[in-house]
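REVIEWER CHECKLIST
Item 1: Sequence provided? yes
Item 2: Single chain? yes
Item 3: Sequence as submitted:
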Amino acid sequence: MPHTHHASFESFLASAVLILAALIYVRGWIRIRRLERDIVGDWRAASFLLGLFLIWLAIASPIAALDHRLLTVHMIQHLLLITLAPPLIWLGAPMQPLTHGLPQRFVGFLAPIFRWAAMQRLGKILANPTLCWLAATCALIGWHIPSLFALGLRSEMWHGIEQASFLISGVLFWWPVIRPWPTGSNGSEWSIILYLFLATLPCDILSGFLVFCDRVVYPVYFSSPRLLEFSALEDQQCAGALMWTCVTVVYLVAGTIVAARLLLPQSLPQYRPVKSEPLLNPAAQTTRQSLEVV
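Item 4: Structure as written out by the authors:
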């Protein structure tokens, strides 16, 4: 089966975009540290950069080129894009460093856009936990339907759409959990524990099916060269078990942290409102505030 979407140009382009994002973030983070200390701590910068690294690992690394040979590698890609990288990105408090790191003219150009009432409404809609849960669930289940799965392997364009949908839905899913800046709604934080529990159900169903199914669900892997001693069925079972374990552990850890933050509010660091940044011109400052409201 032809498989050209891991060509060197696509990997180079993805790597360049991620490196550029990292440089912009680091530039902004350094400028913030020079002006006001401890607004974005060292651990947040490390979290953001690790998130970008995991995205690179999933879409542009040599390991990513093996996804057409092993379903386990394909599953690792999905877990990196939807389960691991997005929360690390949000924990990095990206809006402040990125706003400081971008050229002031560019930030000033964005200011009127984020002041639009339509953008404000869109942000509130996207922050709705129901929508975030549905987006992640639909992406996960949809792209594991055999016909769509095979389409993503055969077509470079559809493979890119598949990866983008996993990353975007992952970013949306973790938004209500981490809440990188205050929003005007979203109800009780106790509901986030239920939100995380419900999110494990479609993953459990899919991974359980892959583990206990007695036939190969994705026949495209029958003809793939075997890199390990796995048969196609054993590879499928390994991929399902990996998803089952990873999702359960990550969501359990997240739920535990949320519960501990609610039960022991004095023992864990809480969100601190963003202070004003004198470095930014008024247009840039307005843009940052608008982004936070969204």
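Item 5: Key structural point noted by reviewer: The chain has one domain: 8-293.
Item 6: Recommendation: ____
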